[in-house]
Amino acid sequence: MVSIPILMEIGIILMIAYLFGEIFQKKDIPVILGFLISGVVIKLVFTYVVGDGSELNFLKILNEVTNLTLGFIGIEVGAELNYRKLKGKLTKMFILAVFQAMGAFLFVTLGVWWWTHQLYLGLIFGTFATATAPAATVKVLKQYEASGALKEYTMFILFVDDIIALVFASFVIPYGESVLGGHASFLFSMLEGVREIFFSIIIGASLAFFLIFLIRHMNHPVEQLEVIVILVFLGVGFSEFVKASPILTMMIVGIILTNYCTCNTRIVKYAEKFSMPLVIAFFALIGLNFDFTSVAAAQFLIVIYVTGTFIGKYLGAFAGGTIIGAPKKVRNNMGFALLNQAGVALGIATYVLERFEVISEEAALIGFMVLTTITTTTIILQIIGPLGVRIAIKRTEGLNDSGIKEEDDYELILTDFMFE
After folding, report:
1. Measured at the alpha carbon of residue 383, what is the angle toward residues 399 and 304, in degrees to the nearest 5?
2. Cα–Cα distance, 238 to 248 (Å, whole number)
3. Has this prediction a pTM greater than 0.70?
4. At a CB cut-off of 8 Å and minimum separation 6, what does 202 contact?
5. pLDDT by residue (tens digit) across 369-410?
6. Residue 61, CA distances (Å) to 58, 65, 369 in order
7. Which domains does the chain have, with CATH numbers?
8. Helices of type H across 57-89
9. What share of the chain is helix, strand, coil (3-state, %, to 5)?
């Protein structure tokens, strides 16, 4: 197979993904789905027409693109959590977040336990199900200009779900290790989870206040944009270095920006627009990583996981919405908006493999099975998830498709760059 330079490969993939997104938007389908499907199509072409799809150089940078994209998305999610706007609603939002997470955890745990007859596997897969991916969810909410209670609840859940998943993982992974013959320490694992959350908060808060300090001494939008992009790279990179959560770190940045800096709206808008190539690359990469053989190998487990996640999220959100007195339309449709899965679940699955493979060969095979299954369910839920968000928006407040790219915003940015 002829080796294609990686930059040429990236350019081709981004262009194809962009065109798919445009086609899907014209058909009133979430553009995120177009980006993802383009990756699947490219993988099929390389695998069955050109040669070996695994030789794509682009696949080698999946982790870096994923973390950078989630860093920018994290700022967007955090920026929606303004205390002045949410004051008086936080307790209700937390109840709803816990109920939908616990619903997914219980249904997936019971389903996988029933199928595999292994409680530790049920608990591990149940932990994955608690996480909700922010990238696709946020972009669809913005494409259809969602607002009101649905958007507020969803954004808060995206933040809390990451913490819930990390806490659950700190309990269930050492339990799995002990069952497989490893010498796991519950205290050590719990401290690792606490350390990850603590470091994320410290790094995020430090970056946010440093960013606010710099921005207050800058008047030109170009300088502000340069600084925020540099700090996203720095925050994500440092989080990886100390094994903190990149997305949680950047969510903290967004939260502090929106609550302590009047410049937050403009800065977040610039970061959102200029991160679009990363977003396109992120979803195209997910599609490129789709492994058709793994679907056949674990098809029943995949069906149980996807079904359990949907039923659990929907019923949990419905029950939580009923308890807190959420508007009827939001209560009845909230669950549809919470099906996306990506970075956090994949990160925990990778950690499971790392911990299991040092126990024994059998444990390593189980860890690999867990990772490949979650990778496959991520693809499936990233296809279903954006459609679910669209359904939730349509049923609660109606669709207003402006596309992810808003021309007025680009004109504003260009004007700022040229004349300020």
Report:
1. 120
2. 13
3. yes
4. none
5. 887 788 788 878 878 888 888 888 888 876 665 554 444 444
6. 6, 6, 22
7. 6-419 (1.20.1530.20)
8. 62-79, 83-86
9. 85, 0, 15
